[in-house]
Amino acid sequence: MIGDYINAFIVGGIICVIAQILIDKTKLTPARILVSFVTLGVILGALNIYDYVVDIGKAGATVPLPGFGFTLAKAAIKEVDQKGLIGAFTGGIKGAAGGITAAILFGYIMALIFDPKTKK
Which parts form a coiled-coil structure per UniProt (predicted)? Predict the structure, then answer.
């Protein structure tokens, strides 16, 4: 059990270190890095490569941005297998709905608890 926590910390940390290096050493904007990570997760998920990362890192691999892309890819593939081409459009939405809903809900709760301000 402790090994799972350590693996999640290491895998999630490596993903974050890669993102930080890209921010520090390239002229890529954070938005482009975000999109690149999600797209990379989709591609690696569709090729069943990210499955190995998830097997090792568990939540350390599924919570960061490539994990979101992985979830989209797996849900779309599953939905295409069940419903055909229309599943390519509905699968990702169904697969990611829980995570997106949680992010919106918790973000709203934090905005109620704390005093959000815009940057000047």
Answer: none
pTM, whole model, 2 decimals?
0.78
Structure tokens at 38: 């999600």
Total count of domains within the chain: 1
pLDDT, residue 79, reads 93
Count CB neighbours of 41 within 10 A. 26
- The answer as to whether 118 is a domain residue is no
**Per-residue pLDDT tens for 35-78?**
999 999 999 999 999 999 999 999 999 888 899 899 989 999 99
- Residue 6 lies inside a defined structural domain of this protein: yes
For the stretch 42-72, what's the b/e string if a residue is b when 16 or more beta carbons lie within 10 angstroms of its beta carbon?
bebbbeeebeebbeebbbbbbbbbbbbbbbb
